[in-house]
Specification:
12 helices; 6-stranded mixed β-sheet; 4-stranded mixed β-sheet; 10 strands; alpha/beta; about 15% strand; 2-enoyl-CoA Hydratase, Chain A, domain 1
Length: about 260
């Protein structure tokens, strides 16, 4: 297995970006995200690429979001999330080429909202979907949250984000979070089917169609996570609330957020 945290491959006009951190269920750090952003930009500008596939190594996880050890922070108490410029979802939305999420297992937290920002989501039957933010004190906010209402409608989107429940691949399909659900053994075949269909179509017309959807999303794209933190809770990272959520997760206990209400 490659020791690279992100693997990039182009074959037959399909670029595949793979998060390669299977020991952490393909959780990412700030460095991982920066590399993913670089490679997505590279694929978007490559005339030899017509479709982009995002996935994770192995059969356990697509991505479970940020690595909690990184998110908890260093010895100075500064969280890895603090001041993170997370532009990957915006990049997916602005990328002129179709982007497919190949969901090969858990798609949790940022891994999940990355998947629903993709143009298509193809999932293995054993995949599990869900958000984690309030459960672990991760202050997700802005357009990465609000776009879920475009996908699901407000009632389902609020359930997804405010209750942090887990959903099977079948339920994700029924809700519109996945375009197709197949046995793991057929996942690559199904992804290739979508790639082949897209590659047979006018690339310029696909760019225009995708840009049309982006303009529909534009009203919510103005504020990101850091904007919302500054608006709602500018001192969030100094209160200990985020550290309590991360510590509880790592210690496998229920967090105590009572003193932060």
């Amino acid at each position: 297995m490659s020791d690279q945290e992100v693997i990039y491959e182009v074959k037959n006009f399909v670029a595949t970006i793979t998060i390669n951190r299977p020991k952490t269920l393909n959780a990412f750090t700030g460095d991982t995200i920066k590399e993913m952003e670089r490679l997505l930009a590279q694929a978007g500008n490559d005339p030899k690429v017509g479709v982009i596939v995002l996935t994770g190594t192995g059969e356990r996880a697509f991505c479970v979001g940020g690595d909690v050890n990184w998110g908890k922070g260093d010895s100075s108490g500064k969280s890895g999330l603090q001041d993170l410029e997370f532009n990957f979802n915006r990049q997916i939305a602005e990328c002129p080429k179709p982007v497919i999420a190949r969901v090969n297992g858990y798609a949790i937290g940022a891994g999940h909202h990355i998947a629903y920002f993709c143009d298509f989501t193809i999932a293995a039957e054993h995949a599990i979907f869900g958000q984690n933010g309030p459960r672990v004190g991760s202050p997700a906010g802005g357009y990465i949250v609000s776009h879920s209402a475009n996908v699901l409608g407000h009632k389902r989107a609020r359930e997804l984000w405010m209750l942090c429940r887990r959903y099977s691949a079948k339920q994700a399909f029924d809700w519109g979070l996945a375009n197709s659900v197949v046995p793991m053994a057929q996942l690559d075949e199904e992804v290739q089917k979508y790639c082949d269909e897209l590659l047979s179509l006018s690339p310029t017309c696909l760019k225009i169609v995708k840009c049309s959807f982006y303009h529909h999303m534009a009203p919510i794209m103005g504020k990101d996570m850091n904007d919302l933190i500054q608006e709602v809770a500018p001192n969030y990272f100094s209160t200990g609330e985020q550290q309590e959520g991360a510590s509880a997760f790592l210690e496998k206990r229920k967090p105590d957020f009572s003193k932060f209400r």
